[in-house]
Specification:
By secondary structure, the protein is of the alpha+beta class. The strands form seven sheets. Strands 3-5-1-12-9-10-11-20 form an eight-stranded mixed β-sheet. A hairpin with a 2-residue loop joins strand 21 and strand 22 (about 560-565). Helix 11 packs across helix 12 and helix 15 (about 480-495) runs parallel beside helix 16. Bound molecules: ligand MTE and dioxothiomolybdenum(VI) ion. Ligand MTE binds next to helix 16 and helix 18.
Length: about 800
């Protein structure tokens, strides 16, 4: 067992404790960035001037009328930027664009005494636009050859040759849409500047260090003059990994120019029309199978809809390409990916980061192919699972491949799959207008950032003279429970009770040069760093305690706040007493910790290597009932077995699995982003701008029965206290509901009918798929009559 994964006896990790801020969340006492803004005297509010065209040159910006409105303090334009006019990481994302690249793009910002005035004044800024041609769908972009970034290919073997000799070859086009993050807290930032010119920016960001770097280059200042704090987020889901930087930059620039605190807080419409979303994809594919249903080859072209600039699109695409295999061994692979440039918001990270998009492709292929191969979908899936010794198309061995089958078999049993399959068949035989579907799908998701350098983290742990502990780490809290886990890690590593550890907000002046809290790796990375810092302190305290107990430092044990030594009976000291003796002996009571994930390598050119420390697995069984007249459906029951390693915090992890599943089900069944693709005056406008037109999962769409089980005895050698990352992988368990819908729709058709289902599989999409099933059934009846 590795030192990293080893748990002491009686650890605080693994205990089912509530989220560290649960009480504050539910009582409304938890503060978010804009709550602090509301308590800041003299604060100015910023409001954007948005382009009414999807693509237009900005000829002139006339601010006179806006400035004449009482309460307006300043209008920020590109001329105000002292450094580099760019708020992204790629140099293609001007903070103040000279060309508006999408409908809603901010071309200038008004600063005023209050939001009402700022908003009114933004409407009074006169912008002269020269309208340019625009591309607002990925199909149009493909037709026009509009791409950005570097195309990437993952390949192994000879897909073309294997397709030529395969027993069956199926081809198709699979298109699926993006997703709005719809975090409850919209993007927010608050900037202040002190007497020495030091900037302090509070930002609702998943990546404070990058916010700091971008502010520094926009403002032309060294990094040490900019401090960024992320107190907590009301959800991020990837949408605050990059997209928060520009808003923080506006607040920072505004405060430098006016000397007053400046806040940016988007309302929902602004947030939806200005910020990037999950990438929708257009894919074309060919899949070859052997006679027994074994996958032989996959050839595919994936085109993601990147929107107007690159943002994280290339990295999202890379992760998509690394997840087209999901849990299946495909010997011959040729999967190409490219990013389309369209006149839309710049699409970005979203839970799963391309993984869901890659996996949707293979799950769609298997779901469509199974009936054509004469196999039940669960048979086809199961027989293609990775086996021990096999590796992924990008050259990574699939260690513990058996775990995929383990979670699968467990959830089959826990869900009573076989019995219910018979019951559902009976139901479908006796009902003509309602049909039920039952489906099981697996998830295998790689954990670590593909870009190796990001896999590092830092922490700062202070033990005060009274024995109380304050920890700081580089990760941000967005509701996922990272802080809860870090408190548990610190309490375990120091051997103190949970309530003697406190956590301070994430700030770049406490832990520098951090990575985004993303790729689900927050607890792996920061947990490693917190543990490392605590262990340095324990090592020093053990020397002191050894002296107090008359034992060797090596034999000292600290657990739940009591210090003892092996072989020393009837003698112990409270942690606080050892701490105060250590202080008097001038022993350092605090430490900076560091962690880097070992054993990773990745070649981004060849798309080969071992980019992941391990894989997280899960499997889900979903049952739905579809109404044939309307296409509406309910999720009758969902069962999940998920592998979170030996969980650091079981309540938190179960919450992540439930939330991930529901968010995934939202993407796949309800959430339908639409842009105006017409040629009228509102071309390019996001049509689904609020919760009234953009349907989110709510209580009424929850599965009626929802069982989530953590895989037991699941220790992971390569991660802190034997745990596994859990933030993103469960999102993809929702493929089970899409496949269950496919099964229910198929039941309206003839035997062996292959169902093509749009994504999202909204009731409308299901309705049309049911119509196709009916038509196929009719056609089958007619041909049975014609050729008896
Ligand atoms: N859970 C909640 N409640 N809110 C969030 O914003 N973001 C998800 C996931 N779970 C998110 C969440 C995403 S996209 C990621 S990458 C991980 O949490 C990040 O946190 P972790 O690395 O600590 O798991
Ligand atoms: Mo998550 S999409 O990696 O922030």
């Amino acid at each position: 067992m590795s030192a990293l994964s080893h748990r002491p006896s009686d650890p605080i990790v693994g205990q089912p404790v509530p989220h560290e801020s649960a009480r504050l969340h539910v009582t409304g006492q938890a503060l978010y960035t804009d709550d602090i803004a509301a308590r800041t005297p003299e604060v100015l509010t910023a409001w954007p001037v948005q382009s009414p065209h999807p693509h237009a040159r900005v000829r002139t910006v006339d601010t006179a009328a806006a400035l004449a409105i009482p309460g307006v303090v300043r209008v920020l334009t590109g001329a105000d930027v002292p450094g580099i006019n760019d708020c992204g990481g790629r140099g293609d994302e001007p903070l103040f664009p000279s060309e508006a690249m999408f409908h809603g793009h901010a071309v200038a910002w008004v600063l005023a005494e209050d939001q009402h005035t700022a908003r009114a004044a933004a409407g009074a800024v006169a912008v002269d636009y020269e309208v340019l041609p625009s591309l607002v769908s990925v199909r149009d972009a493909i037709a026009a050859g509009s791409f950005q970034g570097t195309p990437k290919t993952v390949s192994r073997g000879d897909a073309q040759a294997a397709l030529a000799t395969a027993h069956r070859v199926f081809t198709g086009v699979t298109e699926f849409s993006g997703q709005e993050h719809f975090y409850l807290e919209t993007q927010a930032a608050l900037a202040t500047v002190d007497e020495g010119g030091q900037l302090f920016v509070q930002s609702s960001t998943q990546h404070p260090s990058e916010t700091q770097e971008i502010l520094a280059h926009v403002l032309n200042r060294p990094h040490h003059e900019v401090t960024v704090q992320s107190l907590r987020m009301g959800g991020g889901f990837g949408g605050k990994e990059m997209q928060s930087h520009g808003f923080a930059a506006i607040a920072a620039l505004g405060t430098l120019l006016t000397g007053r605190p400046v806040r940016v807080r988007l309302n929902r419409t602004l947030d939806m029309t200005m910020t990037g979303k999950r990438h929708g994809f257009h894919t074309t594919w060919e899949a070859g199978f052997a006679e027994d249903g074994m996958l032989l080859a996959l050839k595919a072209q994936l085109t993601s809809d990147g929107g107007w600039c690159l943002d994280l699109s290339e990295a999202v695409l890379a992760r998509a390409l690394c997840h087209v295999d999901n849990a299946y061994f495909i010997p011959n692979v040729d999967v190409q990916g490219r990013v389309a440039r369209t006149n839309k918001t710049s699409q970005t990270a979203f839970r799963g980061f391309g993984g869901p998009q890659g996996m949707l492709l293979i799950e769609d292929i298997l779901g469509r192919s199974a009936p054509l191969l004469g196999l039940a979908p669960e048979q086809l899936r199961r027989k293609n699972f990775y086996r021990e010794g096999q590796s992924t198309p990008y050259g990574m061995p699939v260690r513990h491949a058996k775990r995929i089958a383990t979670v699968w078999d467990q959830v089959l049993e826990r869900s009573d799959f076989a019995t219910r399959r018979n019951e559902i068949d009976a139901f479908n035989t006796s009902h003509t207008d309602q049909k039920r579907g039952l489906s099981i799908t697996p998830v295998k998701f790689g954990i670590s950032f593909n870009f190796v350098a990001f896999n590092q983290a830092g922490a700062l742990v202070h033990v005060y003279k009274d024995g109380s502990v304050l920890i700081n780490h580089g990760g941000t809290e967005m509701g996922q429970g990272l802080h809860t886990k870090m408190l548990q890690v610190a309490a375990t590593a120091l051997g103190v009770p949970l309530d003697s550890v406190r956590l301070a907000p994430t700030r770049t002046d406490k832990v520098p040069n951090t990575s985004a809290t993303a790729a689900s790796s927050g607890s792996d990375l920061n947990g490693g760093a917190v543990k490392n810092a605590c262990e340095q302190i324990v090592e020093r305290l053990s020397v002191v305690a050894g002296g107090m107990l008359g034992a060797s430092a090596h034999d000292v044990r600290i657990s739940h706040g009591t210090v003892t030594a092996l072989g020393v009976k009837n003698k112990s000291f409270p942690f606080s007493e050892v701490v105060s003796v250590a202080y008097l002996q001038r022993v350092q009571l605090w430490a900076a910790g560091f962690y880097r994930t070992e054993g990773l390598h990745w070649n981004a050119e060849t798309m080969q290597g071992e980019p992941f420390k391990y894989f997280a697995c899960g499997a889900a069984v979903a049952e739905v009932e579809v109404d044939g007249f309307t296409g509406t459906y309910t999720q009758r029951r969902v069962d999940i077995v998920h592998d979170a390693g030996d969980s650091l915090s079981p309540i938190v992890d179960i919450g992540q699995i439930e939330g991930g599943y529901v968010q995934g089900a939202g993407w796949l069944t309800l959430e339908d982003l639409r842009w105006d693709e017409g040629t009228g005056p509102t071309r390019g406008r996001l049509l689904t701008q609020s919760a009234s037109t953009y349907k989110l999962p709510s209580f009424s769409e929850m599965p009626e029965i929802f069982n989530v089980h953590l895989l037991e005895h699941a220790q992971e050698e390569g991660a802190v206290y034997g745990s596994k990352a859990v933030g993103e992988p469960p999102f993809m368990l929702a493929f089970s509901v899409r496949e269950a819908l496919r099964a229910a729709v198929a039941a309206f058709g003839p035997k062996g009918h292959s169902v093509t289902l749009a994504s999202p599989a909204t009731p409308e999409a299901v309705f049309w798929a049911v119509q196709e099933s009916h038509e196929a059934a009719t056609a089958a009846r007619i041909s049975a009559i014609v050729e008896p």
